[in-house]
Amino acid sequence: MRMRGLxxxxxxxxxxANILLGVAWTLAVGAxxxxxxxxxxxxxxxxxxxxxxxxxxxxxxxxxxxREVEVAVLIAQGLTSKEVGxxxxxxxxxxxxxxxxxxxxxxxxxxxxxxxxxVDHGLLERSIPPN
Length: 131
Description:
mainly alpha
């Protein structure tokens, strides 16, 4: 519900700004409606929720940066580079670069090895499949 209110506020501000700038009122109203409609559809198509990720402790005790931990955890949870990019709002190539840096820093070569390393360092909970 907060998103709808924010979209309405932005649409109203667009309308008022256009009127103050001397734009014809029909165009100003059209711009306000367009902003509202696009905002509504975007809010429904793209669900934006905070990502709950374990955060590397300050001081770390390991060679990974905070962003590398975020990428590593998502990779270890089975997400593809493309899916990680979508969740973190970064390009797939950037994810692949992070993964390569992670592998180099940890001297590992695979996603399963990464998952084991994260569990061993308390950055990922071990999951037990249900019976």
